[in-house]
Amino acid sequence: MCAMLAIDGGKPVRPTMLRAGFHGSAEINDHEIESVLEVLRAKRLFRFLAEGAEASKVALIERWYCERLGRKYALAVNGGTSALIAALFGVDVGPGDEVIIPAYTYVATAAAVIAAGAVPVIAEIDASLNMDPADLEAKITPYTKAVMPVHMRGVPARMDEIMAVAREHNLIVVEDVAQSNGGTYKGKPLGTLGLVGCFSFQQYKVITSGEGGLVATDDETVYDRARMQHDCAARFWEGSADHPRYPFVISGENYRLSELSAALVWAQRERLDPILARCRAVKRRIVEGLKDVPGLQLQDVPDPEGDCGITFAFFVPEAALARRFAAALKAENIACGTVYDNTIPDRHIYSHWPFMMSGLAEDRRAPWKNPFYKGDVQGYSPTQCPKSLDYLGRAIMIFIDQFFTLEDADTIVEGVRKVAQALIR
After folding, report:
1. In sequence order, which residues have a C-beta less than 8 Å from that of residue 1 and are 6 or more positions away?
2. How far apart, in Å, are the Cα atoms of 239 and each of 223, 224, 254?
3. What would the DSSP string read from start to end of 303-331?
4. Is 387 a catalytic residue?
5. Which of 53, 65, 114, 179 falls between 20 and 30 A from 288, CA-CA?
6. 367-383: buried (b, 16+ CB within 10 Å) or exposed (e) per residue?
């Protein structure tokens, strides 16, 4: 006999709501405060001042990421979107080119492609909620220059398959690791499988400086081009505008990271692995408790060992059932939500990217209307990726933070099982 659901008047599995918060900012204490005060006391807020350059917090986090990732070059910037734009300029993506991106990613992924002057091509996702390698291959045209897999919500994409497609078709791979900082794929840090990896330190990310980002690569030319894009004066810091190292020039913009923001990242670097370790332990407990529930399909995680563990997602048979399931689970005091609800404009879903879907983009701001572009993309439709909308519509996601206990994980299992027993026939 099923227990009465709380939404129907029964007793919830918890007396209060279990809800995840921000990861990095929840950890801020005197350690971060002191790191920022060091910068203020030194009155050195700009990384490129000659005096005290060896103490630059920006330079410190760049060196740390090089060591952590095993990459030769790292470039800190003022945001994850800036990192993507700088990376695209780094690999020489521009007008006339197409870049394939997944249907489920934050709007910044598409916006960065457009900022570089290229045309976003949207690929379907699969049960990993990441790019479907088969649809990636189907979307390749003579104008495709790069593919941008996104490791969404802490879960690594199918990088073996994606890299195989990219190699076969001579495509550049730019990894968007904004939501999976610290994750790995088959033992390799995310952001090191493609030619370039891009990270974010925005408030919602695992470690944070409020805003901030980073580009990592082993390619010196890619690094130099990205550096010029992130700083319109980058060629001049060496003291000569005609430095022989550079056979090219990019006018660039200013995406430089401030020393104050870098001070936060520098302090938070010690938080990254402990946060992920605690989240992973909780997620493993949940997965173990729910792997055999009739009617539930757990998200397909391509590499469970490399999963950041910051979210847990599962699918039910129909979108309408997903909405009922999520409402019932919230009534049990377990915070959750459907991933796609067409009444809510979630900017992580391609159909809610208005500068592409609404037709309001001015011709000169729409690279698919640029005379350099000779491909077939003429615009975008909210229904052009039906497989993705189906997966997202049937998906329910629970966010996990480092303060959840294993007992909390057991309660999540209890609540999901209770609702499933009542609603899935």
Report:
1. none
2. 19, 16, 19
3. -GGG---SEEEEE-S-HHHHHHHHHHHHH
4. no
5. 179
6. bbebeebeeebeebeee
DSSP codes, 71-116: -SEEEEES-HHHHHHHHHHHTT--TT-EEEEESBS-HHHHHHHHHT
Tell me the two tokens of residue 152. 């969404």
Residue 405 phi/psi, 5° resolution? Answer: -100, 170
Residue 382 has pLDDT above 80, yes or no: yes
Query: Closest Cα to residue 61, out of 299, 272, 222, 234?
Result: 272
Coil, strand, or helix at residue 176? Answer: strand
Contacts of 294 (CB under 8 A, 6+ apart): 420, 424
Residue 257 corresponds to which tokens in the numbers above? Answer: 């990271």
Please report how the helices 319-331 and 386-394 are oriented relative to each other, as an axis angle in degrees rounded to 10.
30
- Kindly name the residue from 205, 283, 330, 418 that is annotated as catalytic: 205
What is the pLDDT at residue 342?
64
Other CB atoms within 10 A of residue 45 CB: 12
The CA angle 125-290-181, to the nearest 5 degrees, is 50
368: tokens are 């698919």
SS3 412: helix
What percent of the residues of the chain are helix, what percent strand, and what percent coil, each to the nearest 5? Answer: 40, 15, 45
Contact (Cβ atoms closer than 8 angstroms) between residue 65 and residue 74: yes
Domains within the chain, CATH numbers bracketed:
30-269 (3.40.640.10)
Kindly tell me if the per-residue pLDDT of 363 is higher than 90: no
CA–CA distances in Å: residue 221 to residues 73, 213, 217, 226 = 10, 20, 10, 8
Give the Å distances, CA to CA, from 82 to 247, 337, 340, 357, 406.
24, 29, 27, 23, 38
DSSP SS3 for 189: strand
**117, burial (CB in 10 Å: exposed 0-12, middle 13-18, buried 19+):** middle
Q: What number of residues does the chain have?
A: 425
The tens digit of pLDDT for each residue in 313-352 reads 999 999 999 999 999 999 999 999 999 876 666 889 999 9
Tokens at 84, concatenated: 């993507």
- Name the amino acid, one letter, at 150: V
